[in-house]
Specification:
This protein is mainly β and 401 residues long. It has 4 domains: 34 residues, no CATH class; 89 residues, Sandwich (Immunoglobulin-like); 100 residues, Ferric Hydroxamate Uptake Protein, Chain A, domain 1 (Beta Complex); 140 residues, no CATH class. Helices cover 10% and strands 45% of the residues. A hairpin with a 4-residue loop joins β2 and β3. The chain is elongated.
């Protein structure tokens, strides 16, 4: 071992310093992956199969399915009776085990979320493989508090229609200001909350807040990690917010949502003109479309989302120009599984903002010269390649921004 280390050192010494740093970085990343195969943006299901005497059973076929994703994976238990499925998308899974001479058994309703490793152990009894009944908890995680907000919660619980509002459902998280734009956790400043979408950190380098407000209906689930998060995470002092966007499946699915709001639909709650709402009339319109389905069944899927928001107001007081606010937003995502061991995915989010004369509908509270106009374009992209090199080695490459 000593001779090999010397040869490697000599080889690096002949290279430019930049190449040396790149090589060392790749080596360290590979060795870290070899130590424990897990992706922090996905989850894992693992377990062992034993006989009634407690001896582990090799060669058992284990199949994992998700009807939501239309995905199926298979593996065999190794010489120690272990099986493992890694780099799994958040979903509800079913584990099925079978071997010649024994009946097939299933364990369903396995809810897997981002960053979790669930253990499902099986035991053979009298020619039947049954679930031993081990708790579906992540026994390897050091995180002291995790709040999992799946799509059902996001759709049913009344919250603000943004990621920052949803985060406040987690214990210890509250709004730092009146409009709820910047959440704070456990007494830390707002910039201490880290946001990531499909593995891409979206915090502003200057202010620390979430800079890419995704369309609310494009989100599949949100996981909030509190104190004790694993070493893969950094740059936070409050909580970590992992957002997973939706993806296509073997079934074609779509969604259409229309939201309308108008000042005329809101009561003044008083007949006293001095106490009634001042300013101009305002109408808010938000339209959202989703479409997802298969490109090639059981191999490749697509998901697209389009959101358009428009605010119309009339000028009031001394203002001449009426305020305008338009925000179109598009998201596209594709997932491809060429083999059971290889997963490729890509996501692009594009949005523009065109706001003019903001504050011109507030009457005498805002002077004409103090109105604000904003224009801008934002991109969020992510490419991910995952390769299960062996049962204990996972290659996970990411590129995004």
């Amino acid at each position: 071992m000593k001779h090999r280390a010397t040869v490697a050192t000599c080889a690096l010494e002949g290279m430019p310093r930049t190449i040396q740093i790149i090589c060392l970085g790749v080596l360290i990343a590979f060795l870290a992956a070899a130590g424990w195969a897990q992706s922090i943006e996905r989850g894992s299901i693992t377990g062992t199969i034993t006989d009634p005497n407690g001896d582990r059973m090799p060669g058992v076929n284990v199949m994992l399915t998700s009807t939501e994703l239309g995905a199926t994976s298979e593996t065999m238990t190794d010489a120690n009776g272990r099986y493992r499925f890694v780099a799994l998308l958040p979903s509800t899974y079913t584990v099925e085990a079978s071997i010649e001479g024994f009946s097939t058994a299933q364990q369903g309703d396995i809810e897997l979320t981002v960053g979790k490793t669930l253990s499902v152990d099986l035991t053979s009894i009298e020619d039947v493989i049954i679930v031993e009944g081990s708790p579906l908890i992540d026994v390897r995680s050091s995180t002291l508090q995790t709040t999992e907000l799946n799509n059902e919660i996001l759709m049913e619980v009344p919250t603000g229609r943004s990621i920052r509002s949803v985060v406040q459902l987690a214990p210890g998280v509250h709004s730092q200001n009146a409009d709820g734009r910047q959440p704070s956790a456990f007494g830390s400043p707002g910039m201490g909350v880290q946001f990531s979408v499909d593995g891409v950190i979206i915090n502003s380098p200057e202010a620390g807040e979430s800079e890419v407000p995704l369309g609310f209906f494009s989100v599949e689930d949100v996981t909030v990690l509190g104190a004790g998060a694993s070493a893969e995470y950094g740059g936070y002092t409050g909580v970590i917010v992992n957002v997973t966007t939706k993806q296509g499946s073997n079934d074609m699915n779509g969604l259409v949502d229309l939201q309308l709001a108008d000042n005329d639909w809101q009561s003044q709650n008083t007949n006293d003109p001095d106490l009634q709402r001042s300013g101009s009339d305002r109408t808010d319109t938000e339209v959202h479309f989703d479409l997802g389905g298969p490109v090639q069944r059981d191999k490749a899927w697509f998901f697209t989302s389009f959101k358009y928001y428009q605010q119309d107001s009339t000028a009031s007081g001394d203002h001449v120009n009426a305020p305008t606010n338009e925000r179109p937003r598009f998201l596209g995502k594709i997932n491809w599984t060429p083999t059971q061991e290889k997963i490729l995915s890509g996501m692009l989010e594009y949005s523009t903002r065109d706001q003019a004369y903001q504050g011109a509908d507030e009457g005498d509270f805002i002077a004409p010269g103090a109105t604000v106009s904003l224009e801008g374009t934002q991109y969020l992209f992510n490419f991910n390649y995952t390769d299960m090199l062996s049962q204990d080695t996972l290659l996970d490459l990411k590129f995004g921004g």
